[in-house]
Amino acid sequence: MKANYDNRKLATLGEYDNAVEANMVKGVLETNGVHCIVVNDMMSSILPLAPLKTGLVKVMVFEQDVSLARNILASAPSDDDGYYDA
Questions:
Q1: What is the pTM assigned to this prediction?
Q2: How many Å apart are CA 31 and CA 33, to the nearest integer?
Q3: Is 39 exposed, middle or buried (0-12, 13-18, 19+ CB in 10 A)?
Q4: What is the DSSP string of 3-36?
Q5: Element (H, E) at 69
Q6: C-beta of residue 86 within 8 angstroms of C-beta of residue 13
Q7: What number of other Cβ atoms are within 10 A of residue 37's Cβ?
Q8: Are residues 29 and 61 in contact, defined by beta-carbon separation less than 8 angstroms?
Q9: In sequence order, what are the beta bridge partners of 14?
Q10: I need a surface site. Which of 15, 38, 70, 75 has the fewest CB within 10 A?
Q11: What is the pLDDT of residues 26-75, one digit of tens each?
């Protein structure tokens, strides 16, 4: 059965300094069944040291999955840099 995503809206779960961090979060979420996308990852590669908000990489999930995604990230093991904080 194909999922119906037509009426779902996306919400920003978190913003990260680079695509590596954002994709780590994406991997944790997808492993736990939460669909998500990484946005602006190319911009972070082009301007890796830019202190601009446009350089941030976003992880987006469906609005109804925000709470679940935050709970998953809160329970995921992380290092001292807090990569999984949302």
A1: 0.72
A2: 6
A3: middle
A4: ---TT--EEEEEEESSHHHHHHHHHHHHHTT--E
A5: helix 66-75
A6: yes
A7: 13
A8: yes
A9: 59
A10: 75
A11: 999 999 999 999 998 765 555 555 555 555 889 999 999 999 999 999 99
